[in-house]
Amino acid sequence: MPLVKLISLSSLLHPRQMLIFRKKAAAKHLIERYFRQLTEGCGNGNCTNEFCASCCDFQPVDSNSAAVKALELFKINAKLCDPHASKSESGALHPDTSANGIRPNFSNMMSSKDLLGTKEDFSDVHYLTEDTVYTILTVCEEEGDYSVLIRIIGKVFSNAEALIKSFRKVAPHTTEELHSFEPTDVDKHKERSAAVSEKMGGSSAAAALPEDSPTQTVGPDEVTVDIDAVRRVYDRLLANEQIEAALVNALVYLTPNVELDLEYLDVYETNPDYLNIFIIVMENSNLHSPEYLEMAMPLFCKAMSKLPVSALAKLSKVWARFGLPHIRRMMETFQQLITFTIISNEYDSEHLVNDDETVVAATNCLKVVFYASILAGDLDVDHNEEEDEESESDELTLQELLGEERLYRKGPRINPLEKELGVRTVDCRKPLIPFEDFINESLNDVIEMDKDFTFFKVDAETKFSFQSCPFILNAITKNQGLYYDNRIRMYSERRITALYSMVQGQQPNPYLKLKVRRDHIIDDALVRLEMISMENPSDLKKQLFVEFEGEQGVDEGGVSKEFFQLVLEEIFNPDIGMFTYDDETKLFWFNSSSLENEAQYTLIGIVLGLAIYNNCILDVHFPMVVYRKLMGKKGTYFDLADSHPVLLQSLKEVLEYTGNVEEDMMITFQISHTDLFGNPVSYDLKEKGDQIPVTNENRQEFVDLYADYILNKSVETQFRAFKKGFLMVTNESPLKYLFRPEEVELLICGSRNLDFKALEDTTEYDGGYSKDSQIIKDFWETLHSFGEEQKRLFLQFTTGTDRAPVGGLGKLKMIIAKNGPDTDRLPTSHTCFNALLLPEYSSKEKLRERLLKAITYAKGFGML
Question: Which residues form the active site (predicted)?
Fold first, then answer.
């Protein structure tokens, strides 16, 4: 026997080809039974079936006539008798052989058109199933004419009602019945024949609605669409360009009607299956191609953005289960539509991107994918810090009297989709798709942030603001929005102060002025800020001006920078004991045994808030968990990675230990650590923890409680005071709404990556210097030759901080100005303006020596 005959048919055929083969075999089997019924009968002497040879009224026919008649009976779904007992017992003949010994070859007599229904029958197909598509596709392939399929695709995909009913999930037993044609009783044969006829495009069955067939019961977050079937159908259809064009045209025709239905008829509330339209359309893997991007996708996004929040939330939950490749494909589709639209148009202050309906609609659709990525990522929705509820006063504020209350609404606004889903961006440690992939740089380049800020704050109900979708904005753009918010608050406080001074006849004090002594900077700052926070916390929202006693520097920003730096150096001094320092991670953590009062921690919180509010960068070294806690999350086991890596490794060993934890490790739910003076301190993680051994069963609880104690409970007093000070300045800011924890760190600390080549490219020159001046060429060669520490000293000397601002050193806009001819004087700087005053030294060696001395020993401010 040849080897090929040993190979099963199913291994040689594609699953779809196998399905068609089975259907043809099933139809052939039924026709052959009609043939035997016409030539042999069923064996029942009392048979009343006029199409059965056993019926007394039946007129005998020859084999050829019987074969033709059997095909006609199959097409009309005629009655088919069950073999009578006496007939089945004889079994003398081959089941496919007639009484006269003739066995007709139906495979040669019948084409797919005969087996699967005539071409005209497809005109009554009112919705699609996977089997229907394959049946029509098979006929079209045999005839070499796809016009029927194109017409039906256009008909179904352009009609909302038809698309809703298409590709429905069916109960598992229905599929089994379609593939099983074992003889049972007459009624079951009729049901099966009808099922086959329906699936193969029979005129009467094809028009039946899916609800006539058993469907799976779905939950509130489930859909009735068979996603896998839709994907398989698209795989077959999209290989044909003619069919692709039909899909594009159908989508163009479909979406305006869908948009009207959603906007005026509330169709989703009455029929949740309306969501099927968007699920089916978004499974098309070619939506990112120009054919769709030009017309179909803009219309589709406008329709999708009309879905109610509950529908968008359900869509996010459904897509979250699709897996990375499918979610990424949808994300890239909407991103490409946004980019394609932006580069195809021109925007300015008169023609804003905010008014582009396509960009706005695509951004709203991208939001659904963004939350799907969050839901599918590493979520932590349980560990939240308790928010302090502020009591609302019934008295009118001056801002309300001035009609500015909308600009200064308390707290961050609520994202409706977040509220519906019960999840926030900060709840996700690691989304399925990185946050950065949702940022659209083309969009960030054309946004007019001053206008967008106005829409965000004042006209949110009538105008779209991209700050309502902060995931699409980069940190630079969001920082601009925060800058406008801070500056407008400063101007508002200045106006209010002027009004109060006019009424009360006092000298106006429009700024937050701090006069401090260098040698007593903490005491002076603490006393002044504590008084302000107690008497009038709103003064913290005024523009900051710092004056060092005995110095002539005027604060245009540089003096404030040094003030912040000196305060931080003092507070983070290990000798004070407010924070502990980890030599390995080079990070600070709150000292749970600190003897300092809460006011000191409130001060450092205020300083961080003021730095953000006044656009200053601080040299702060906190682990990420601090910023997560500031944004409302508690620290957990996973946060120990950067704050307490040694402890994390120990706890990880407990979790992964394969032996008997209780007997081998002998640890309990009582832990110990050392206080400020090195004395051991014990703490019970549970009541009578010293009597509760850690076992293999409860070790996860032990680890969670241990992490909770280290990151939350042990420093609860210190961190609460710290957060209180931070919120005194930022409580009315959109900071929490716009930024993720890692972006808040970037705002406060700046970037640790220093690209001095980017700084060179953006530096401007004054006083006679240019980029081609020899002294300038020598300067950059010298600076690039410096070590990392020397470069940071230069940055500190020139700008007041050794960190890059948000966006990198390229955003710094440093100025190098000529400060006279060759001299022995050192270079000087105006940190307020990021300006370096550089004499025209006679040699490169002298330039290097003078510059190193200046950046190494410079401290203090004086009038030049």
Answer: 832
Which is it for strands 378-379 and 428-430: parallel, antiparallel or unpaired? antiparallel
Does residue 198 carry a pLDDT above 70? Answer: no
Which residues are known to be catalytic? 832
- pLDDT digit string, tens, across residues 825-835: 899 988 777 88
Kindly state the DSSP code that residue 578 receives in the 8-state scheme.
Answer: S
66 forms beta bridges with: none
Average pLDDT over residues 27-32: 74
Span 199-236, pLDDT tens digits: 333 333 333 344 444 445 566 778 999 999 999 999 99
* pLDDT mean over 448-470: 87
The CATH number given to whatever domain includes residue 722 is 3.90.1750.10
Range of the domain at 662: 570-749
Note whether 639 and 736 are same-domain residues.
yes
Pick the last residue of a domain from 711, 726, 749. Answer: 749
Q: Are residues 703 and 580 in the same domain?
A: yes
Q: Which domain-ending residue is among 37, 55, 76?
A: 76
pLDDT tens digits for 241-297? 889 899 999 999 999 999 999 999 889 999 999 999 999 999 999 999 998 999 999
Report the 10 Å Cβ neighbour count for 778. 17
Q: What is the distance between the alpha carbons of residues 855 and 849, in angstroms, rounded to a whole number?
A: 10
Same domain, 744 and 829: no
* C-alpha distances in Å from residue 710, one per residue of 577, 648, 671, 693, 755: 17, 11, 11, 20, 37
Structure tokens at 758: 């980017």
Q: Is residue 543 part of a domain?
A: no
Query: HSE on the CB side for 714, CA within 13 Å?
Result: 24
CA-to-CA distance for 115 and 24, rounded, in angstroms?
Answer: 7
For residue 105, give the 3-state DSSP assignment: coil
Q: Any idea which of 34-48, 148-162, 619-633, 838-852 has the lowest mean pLDDT?
A: 34-48
For residues 672 and 781, membership in a common domain is answered with no
- The domain tally of the chain equals 3
3-state secondary structure 251-285: HHHHHHHHHHHHHHHCHHHHCHHHHHHHHHHHCCC
Give the Cα separation of 169 and 213 in Å (integer). Answer: 10
311-320, 491-500, 659-668: segment of lowest average pLDDT: 491-500
Contacts of 659 (CB under 8 A, 6+ apart): none
Cα dihedral 635, 638, 643, 648 in deg (nearest 10): 120
pLDDT tens-digit map of 169-194: 875 444 444 344 343 333 443 343 34
Write down how long the chain is: 864
